[in-house]
Design goal:
Layout: H1 2-27, H2 33-53, H3 59-62, H4 65-79, H5 93-113, H6 125-145, H7 176-179, H8 184-197, H9 201-210, H10 217-227, H11 233-247, H12 260-269, H13 273-284
Helix pairs in contact: 1-4, 2-4, 4-6, 5-6, 6-8, 8-11, 10-11, 10-13
């Protein structure tokens, strides 16, 4: 009897998610101002309801990959429209964004970071792709809804080792393995998240700090992706956007310890082979995306 109820519940959830996704697509053709507002209220309420299903700490839901992926796919559709968090009557838009961020980071941490990427298994691949896409949509929504620019730190993950939690948070280091994932869609989307975060100076500094233990650092990593002719053009384009964001950071007016420019110049002065090779490649060949 319990198995029958579970099967019926899963099928009902599948049909409802499909219906809601189709309904949201139909809203894209709405032009009337009143109808647009009603669609906005529906979208925000649906976003809040879908968030309630995202309970990865609950073991039955955690291992129900098809159910979790369907929920995340619905969240992808909800968050794809700018302003999706703006129509709640009980919660501020940025508060909704923070709740979404906490839930999505928990998913990506559970299905990707703790498993050291997908080198060992393809389990949860659809979950990873949907989560990363939701995070990309969320990064742009947070830019629009944040009351100030001090929100990049909300994207940090704590250190894996609980004994080190009070000394060195993981920061944005969780994002880097996604840049070298075997799936081009995951690469492109995760690099686009990096591009969005580095549009703020705080994001540039945080990402650079998270890459300090990688040969070449952030600059070398991004340059290697940009110059890799085997990568697809969308992946290389996002790497170029990150590099562009790094280059437009204003030079500090006074000496600042561990600034992003100081890290770059120090690596070049010490003869970092990755950065030197990347710079020589930039100078010696035309860039073909």
């Amino acid at each position: 009897m319990d198995d029958t109820k579970t099967a019926v519940r899963r099928q009902l959830q599948k049909e409802l998610i499909t219906f809601f996704n189709t309904l949201q697509l139909s809203f894209m053709s709405v032009t009337d101002r009143k109808d647009l507002e009603l669609a906005g209220y529906f979208r925000t309420e649906l976003a809040l309801k879908l968030m309630q299903y995202l309970r990865v700490t609950d073991a039955p839901h955690f291992y129900g990959l098809p159910s979790l992926e369907r929920t995340l796919r619905g969240m992808v559709h909800v968050t794809a429209v700018p302003g999706w968090s703006s129509y709640s009557v009980i919660m501020e838009p940025f508060t909704i964004c923070k709740k979404y961020l906490a839930g999505l980071l928990e998913v990506i941490s559970s299905f990707y970071v703790e498993w050291r990427g997908n080198a060992m298994s393809f389990m949860g691949k659809g979950v990873t792709k949907c989560t990363i896409l939701c995070l990309l949509h969320l990064s742009h929504e947070m830019m629009a809804q944040a009351p100030n620019m001090d929100w990049v730190s909300l994207w940090f993950l704590p250190c894996d080792n609980s004994e080190e939690q009070f000394t060195s948070p993981q920061g944005l280091a969780w994002l880097i393995p996604l840049w070298v994932d075997r799936d081009p869609e995951v690469k492109f989307t995760s690099l686009a998240i990096g591009s969005a975060l580095t549009s703020l100076e705080a994001g540039c500094l945080a990402l650079a700090e998270s890459c300090q233990n990688i040969s070449g650092g952030l600059w070398g990593t991004v340059m290697n992706i940009l110059l890799d002719q085997s990568e697809c053009s969308m992946v290389r384009r996002e790497a170029a956007f990150i590099l562009q964001n790094l280059l437009v950071i204003p030079l500090p007016t006074e000496e600042v310890k561990d600034s992003i420019w100081q890290i770059l110049m120090t690596r070049l002065a010490l003869g970092d082979p990755y950065l030197i090779k990347a710079n020589l490649q930039v100078l010696s060949q035309p860039l073909r995306l």
